[in-house]
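Pasting two entries for a bug report.
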Amino acid sequence: MAHCARNLAPEELPETVVRKYCACMADIGEEAEMLTWSQTELERSYPPAHVQCHEEARG
């Protein structure tokens, strides 16, 4: 989850949004594998999940 938060840092999102988004995405795939990915790679690998988590986090 810390890796996800670091990847999102440049977007300057509220901490609650980052926490919700990263928690949601952590439930999607293999966390060990995902730790090596950039945010762009993660979003491209799980496009429907990315959109869903993005909407939930900002909702």
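Entry 2 (this is the one that rendered wrong in the viewer):
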Amino acid sequence: MHVTYVHIMAGKCEKASSRRKFVIKLSEDLLAQWMKKRQNVATLCRSTRPIICEILKSEQNIELPEQLEIKKRKVCAVLAMQLA
């Protein structure tokens, strides 16, 4: 893959980056779409969100959906008879 990249850059008369920089850029490009989806997940750790924003170079003002009210579960009739 890097060989193809170097060949294309040579055709454009531009200097190709090192393999290390090429692989880092490639991994960022491949993971960017997944990180954008992950950034919008409500259960994402607070410490992870700023890191993703920094990598994507995006703002951190993403609105999270409001938490739903937790309703108390009712015991079913069959289970209630077994407990008695």
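Dev reply: Rendering is fixed now. As a check, the viewer should reflect this: Residues 33 and 56 are 10 Å apart (CA to CA).
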